[in-house]
Amino acid sequence: MSFRKVNIIILVLAVVFFLLVLHHNFLGLSSLLRNEVSDSGIVGLQPIDFIPNAPHDAVDGRQEEVPVVIAASEDRLGGTIAAINSIQHNTRSNVIFYIVTLNHTADHLRSWLSSSTLKSIRYKIVNFDTKLLEGKIKEEPDQGESVKPLTFARFYLPILVPSAKKAIYMDDDVIVQGDILALYNTPLKPGHAAAFSEDCDSVYTKVVIRGAGNQYNYIGYLDYKKERIRKLSMKASTCSFNPGVFVANLTEWKRQNITNQLEKWMKLNVEEGLYSRTLAGSITTPPLLIVFYQQHSTIDPMWNVRHLGSSAGKRYSPQFVKAAKLLHWNGHFKPWGRTASFTDVWEKWYIPDPTGKFSLIRRHTEISNIK
Length: 371
Description:
The chain is of the alpha/beta class. It contains 11 helices and 10 strands. One of its GO terms (molecular function) is UDP-glycosyltransferase activity.
């Protein structure tokens, strides 16, 4: 009898031990799954590294974080660096940069950040997997930007910044001269997922790009001969907006499934060719115009003073450029190239590449001035 009791006790202890081990492993697996979900979001957007702490005297830790999302492509990396530098030096807010790039650029970006005055910034490098865009874009000989995957990063903001309720997106061809906190505090109307700068917000933005139609209304971006576009009942004369700088309410963005809506119109364009054949701007603009038709707030136009990358930018006075909160070199001519307007303003924030891979392109008469 006692021998049988001993066997029962041993069996019970074995079962208890087994259950404890099983419970421990389950907790470990649950933790692992939680970490992977929170870090990765979905396949294709993987964080590479994260610098969590800026110097204590740089920001007030009690301040709300200001997430700024910006892309970093290898051939335009100097633009990203200059934009980040201008933001960082014109604010004392608690800014964290989400820098979206491709795997082969990450090391170059990291070395540039760590060897310059930007080594103290808070940032996260996120790899963008081009597989996300399969079946959603097509190559157009006259629309080179359509094959640049990073230009679509703005469509995936809630995944890039999963824990934020609000974020700023901006292109890499900008310089910020105001406090980014003011842009972040742009009020959005109830039910609006984003705030853009409209192309009709001032006379100076009404420009016509040669061979590209009007760049300030919907007909410059969408093919109104297509039945699917006509069925949307959007007025062709509706003022368009520029998606190179915007503030997003990510709670609303997720609630309205904005990313899914954008992907839907990308796929339909591949199948039916819905965009204007003389597309007035970025390939990312048409789906945004459709999804946000009469459903977006506006930002102060001085927070997106654009067309500095076209001939129109030469019309601005130095006083006006100095007063702008954000300068945007959208267009063919970039400030790291030869012919853009007000390159001296941009160059003030440029940090030379320590690896020597990226260099400014200047006329021979200017070379001595940029060393």
